Amino acid sequence: MLKVVLCASVLLSMVSYPSVADDHRAEFGYPAGLMSICPGSTKPAVIPKSQLKYLSFVVQGNGRSRQKYSYWNARNIAKDPRINFKRRTLLVAIGYLDSPNLPISAMFANDYEDRGYNVIIVDNQRFATVHYHLATRLMRPVGKHVAEVLVQLTQYGLDPSKLELLGFSLGCHTAGFIAKHFHTMTGRNISTIAALEPSGPCFRNLGPKDRLDASDADFVQVIHTNIDGYGMAAPMGHVDIYVNGGEYQPSDISIYPCTTTCSHFRVLPLWISALKNPRKFIGLKCKDIQQARDSACYSNLPIDTVVMGLGIDKRKRGIFYLATTMEYPFYLGAKGLKEENVYWKKLTDVNSGDETEIYT
Ligand SMILES: *[C@@H]1O[C@H](CO)[C@@H](O)[C@H](O)[C@H]1NC(C)=O
Question: Which residue ranges make up each domain of the chain?
Fold first, then answer.
């Protein structure tokens, strides 16, 4: 009996060897826990009417001055002297644990204000500052109620073709839900979504209806900086830019790697730099995500490129690799199209020789 079992298991391991080598899940198991699978995350969530007072909108303009309006006050948003719907409008969807009073949305608000945009920051802090798993579900009704306000604003002159959504992390999916609901309610598209590092946990295994997707707006630009950590590998836009391959970012601290949090947040100064340096972040077209991960898109012909940022060519489609330096302002310009500038290939070849270098 023992012999048979032994035999069978030897045979089995021989037979299954090649696939185990390719995909260790058979050996090491499938992800099933709280962060990987997020049990129950597609269950519906509602925000009761009594809680809608916690959904508000911060309008910024006229030299950084701000005014906050509740969900019930769309008319007053339209009448705010900071708003002029002849201009473009930026709507910022904040991330997990974020608030319009924290530096991230302020940084964006200031930059877009200086570019002549109406700036509206969605204050859904109340719903984004709960257990992450619940926050991911609550962003669906948040999206719906924000869309209701936008629909009212269109009656006061907001033109959806001049409306741009900007989200970071969880906020990218919120932006997606806003746009989906706006489309359902009006049959019209919001013009663009710029999605900075859409969050992966609880969304990774969901389909296009339950997360940000290219079908949400006329043009969706997605920047990925930590796809194996807090971010998400799946392409979700018309253009998906995998910065330095999208896995992890180069560190600006010697010998200390830029791990998950560092790589996830790196997208923020990257986007600010792309706003200030509009033609300097040039991405190279890849055949697929694996090519981007491998920094192996340099020999693709014909060469196709995309310029990350507000000036992106909205006719472009596909997966792009973008090389950067390790420090602000990060851009490489045309140098980024040369393979010798791939940062991790430029690092000292830690494992290439026989040295066992000791840092002193
Ligand atoms: C809305 O956007 C989607 C995705 O980009 C696109 O397929 C669709 O044609 C657009 N709809 C309209 C009415 O422009």
Answer: 50-346
Q: With cut-offs at 50, 70 and 90, classify the pLDDT of residue 318.
A: very high
pLDDT at 6: 45
pLDDT in tens, 115-125: 999 999 999 99
Does residue 186 line the site of ligand 1, with CB under 6 A? no
For 55-69, write each residue's pLDDT tens digit: 999 999 999 999 999
Distance 290 CA to ligand 1 centre (A): 28
> 3-state SS of the chain?
CHHHHHHHHHHHHHHHHHHHHHCCHHHHCCCCCHHHHCCCCCCCCCCCHHHHHHCEEEEEECCCEEEEEEHHHHHHHHHCCCCCCCCCEEEEECCCCCCCCCHHHHHHHHHHHHCCCEEEEEECHHHHCCCHHHHHHHHHHHHHHHHHHHHHHHHCCCCHHHEEEEEECHHHHHHHHHHHHHHHHHCCCEEEEEEECCCCCCCCCCCHHHCCCHHHEEEEEEEECCCCCCCCCCCCCCEEEEECCCCCECCCCCCCCECHHHHHHCHHHHHHHHHHCCCCCEEEEECCHHHHHCCCCCCCCCCCEEECCCCCCCCCCEEEEECCCCCCCCCCHHHHHCHHHCHHHHCCCCCCCCCCCCCC
Q: Report whether CATH 3.40.50.1820 matches the domain 50-346.
A: yes
Ligand 1 atom nearest the C-alpha of 183 is 1
Determine which residue's CA is closest to atom 11 belonging to ligand 1. 189
Cβ 314 under 6 angstroms from ligand 1? no
Nearest CA to ligand 1 atom 2: 218
Distance from the alpha carbon of residue 356 to the mean position of ligand 1, in angstroms: 57
The predicted model scores a pTM of 0.91
Span 228-239, mean pLDDT? 97
